[in-house]
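Section 5: illustrative case.
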């Protein structure tokens, strides 16, 4: 269970390095930790920030690595298509 998770984290980190302009913050969660892990450890956040309150019932969104990878691929594809479209419009 841990090995596939480590591989997924490594693949996601590699994908993010190729798409450094991905404008959304993302965090990982390691089992049995109470921390949201940022790409840079100095930006880690406490997991309790995700706890609901009276005004916001869902403060955090969770994606599995494969879903995140599809989101990232869709973002990169959309960015490339938009760039081509803008070049053709000139």
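Designed sequence:
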């Amino acid at each position: 269970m841990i090995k596939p998770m480590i591989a997924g984290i490594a693949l996601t980190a590699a994908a993010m390095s190729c798409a450094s302009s991905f404008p959304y913050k993302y965090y990982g969660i390691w089992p049995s930790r109470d921390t949201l892990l940022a790409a840079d450890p100095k930006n880690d956040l406490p997991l309790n920030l995700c706890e609901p309150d009276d005004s916001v019932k869902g403060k955090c969104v969770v994606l599995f690595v494969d879903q995140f990878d599809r989101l990232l691929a869709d973002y990169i594809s959309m960015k490339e298509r938009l760039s081509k479209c803008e070049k053709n419009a000139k």
